[in-house]
Design a protein that fits this description.
By secondary structure, this protein is α/β, with parallel strands linked by helices. It contains 20 helices and 9 strands. The protein is about 50% helix and about 10% strand. Strand 7 and strand 8 form a beta hairpin. The chain binds fe (ii) ion.
């Protein structure tokens, strides 16, 4: 079936996730198809033949990463316009100005990364009007790629055989017959149609299918009600901060191995079993710190699976001696929160790193690096941490990096992923970690989030 719009939609992204979502939205509502490209200049001349306009949909970080390519986009034989995806994490006025400058020659709009379908479709309609024809008002279009995850038709399904003519090929609940499939595939049909009233039902099932891969990666006892206890939420947060998919995969594997290592201990103490079930600040901090530190470590020469696992193990055990999340939140002994504690609680806070090391002493396979990291996870630059007030050059080098990530995770969880907090962290970190033995790991840390700076 020919797709007769003069506007082609191209999703620019390294991975295919965004493409899947955009194609589902666009192709169900408009008579055009959606392509996926990894670079703004990889769009082939052949593909652009007879085109009047190309709409690029991409994340603002993608534009920042490919600045020079975007700046060198010529006028070409067709018009270019953009929908730039953003969020309110680090996308402030400054970032908006930067993007507007890069895209100043082209029509562009901004849209939130969450991609609310109605808003996104309205935006496309507003930008292109009649140049991007809508699918027949009574039907929604659906790519066969998504539809055929199972041959069973969720709802009555049609193919389009003329400008406004639709033929039902299968009834709700029945399997699409092989011969029909063969026939339509041979004819180059890429889309099925379903009645608009039925679309929601299909759509929900397709979206569930699209996200199936990531939902199986949910962490131990992962709960979506907590901010960072679920691996998906940690992924989403880190991705929005610029961490790549590949690095997150390494972190996933490592964290799983570390969890197994702890859970399979021959004599895992009962209190530790209970501790590991908790979903609170302590577990959020643990998950986020391990993902952050593994991401940063992957930028350094000593980034190898053994060291990744040390970070993951350290982050699981670091606060195992505390059962009160309010005590775990205290990162500075000069803070009001600490000063207001009872003497008993003060001791618990100060001693929790050494108590955690005692726990490690009873577990198998915990080496000195892991013990050092746990012992030193509250040390801070200029000897401002606890329990010993160690300076940068008195720490295990792995701890220098771990501390940066621990502080970052703590501040994201307590202050939230918002522009004001992120900018404050950025500024404070530059002052705290730019010198001495913190400098190299801090550089790796910046490298991981470079797309957001
Ligand atoms: Fe701690």
């Amino acid at each position: 079936m020919s797709v007769n719009s003069s506007v082609k939609v191209v999703v620019l992204d390294k991975s295919k996730e965004l493409f899947k979502m955009v194609s589902l939205y666009v192709e169900s509502e408009f008579e055009t198809n959606v392509l996926h490209h990894e670079s703004p200049t990889s769009f082939d001349d052949l593909e652009s033949k007879d085109l009047k306009e190309v709409l690029y949909v991409c994340d603002y970080t993608f534009i920042l990463n490919f600045q020079s390519e975007f700046k060198s986009l010529g006028s070409g034989t067709y018009k270019r316009s953009f929908i730039v995806l953003e969020d309110n994490l680090l996308f402030g006025d400054e970032e908006k100005r930067e993007i507007e400058l890069i895209l100043k020659e082209f029509k562009h709009n901004f849209c939130h990364r969450d991609l609310i379908k109605n808003q996104f479709v309205d935006m496309l309609e507003g930008m292109f009007g009649a140049a991007l024809p809508r699918v027949d008002l009574n039907y929604s279009k659906m790519s066969m790629d998504y539809f055929l995850k199972s041959k069973n038709a969720l709802v009555d399904t049609y193919v389009k055989i003329g400008a406004e003519k639709f033929v039902k090929i299968v009834n709700r609940g029945e399997d699409v017959p092989e011969e029909v499939l063969e026939h339509v595939t041979k004819k180059g049909v890429r889309f099925f149609y379903v009645k608009k009233v039925d679309f929601k039902e299909c759509y929900r099932s397709i979206v569930d299918n699209l996200s199936e891969g990531s939902s199986t990666k949910r962490g131990v006892g992962g709960s979506l009600t907590e901010q960072f206890t679920s691996i998906e939420n940690v992924h989403a947060a880190l991705k929005s901060l610029g961490v790549s998919e590949e690095v997150l995969e390494i972190a996933d594997e490592t964290v799983e191995i570390a969890k197994k290592t702890i859970q399979e201990q021959a004599n895992l103490p009962a209190f530790l079993k209970e501790f590991l079930k908790n979903e609170n600040y302590i577990s959020e901090l643990s998950t986020l710190t391990s993902y952050l530190s593994i991401s940063c470590l992957s930028e350094l020469p000593w980034g190898n699976p053994k060291n990744f696992t040390k970070f993951a193990l350290a982050s699981i055990i670091q606060d195992a001696a505390l059962n009160d999340e309010e005590l775990a939140k205290i990162c500075h002994l000069e803070s009001e929160e600490f000063k207001n504690l009872s003497e008993g609680d003060k001791t618990k806070v100060v001693e929790h790193p050494s108590k955690a090391v005692e726990i490690l002493d009873h577990l198998e396979g915990m080496d000195q690096d892991i013990k050092d990291i746990v012992m030193q996870h509250h040390e801070r630059p200029q000897g401002k941490g606890f329990p010993w007030g160690l300076k940068d050059n008195e720490l295990n080098p792995l701890s220098n990096l771990y501390i940066i990530c621990h502080e970052y995770a703590h501040r994201i969880i307590t202050g939230g992923l918002n522009l004001a907090n992120m900018k404050k962290i950025d500024q404070d970190f530059r002052e705290m970690f730019s010198s001495g033995n913190y400098a190299k790991p801090y550089k790796a840390f910046l490298e991981v989030f470079r797309s957001k700076r």
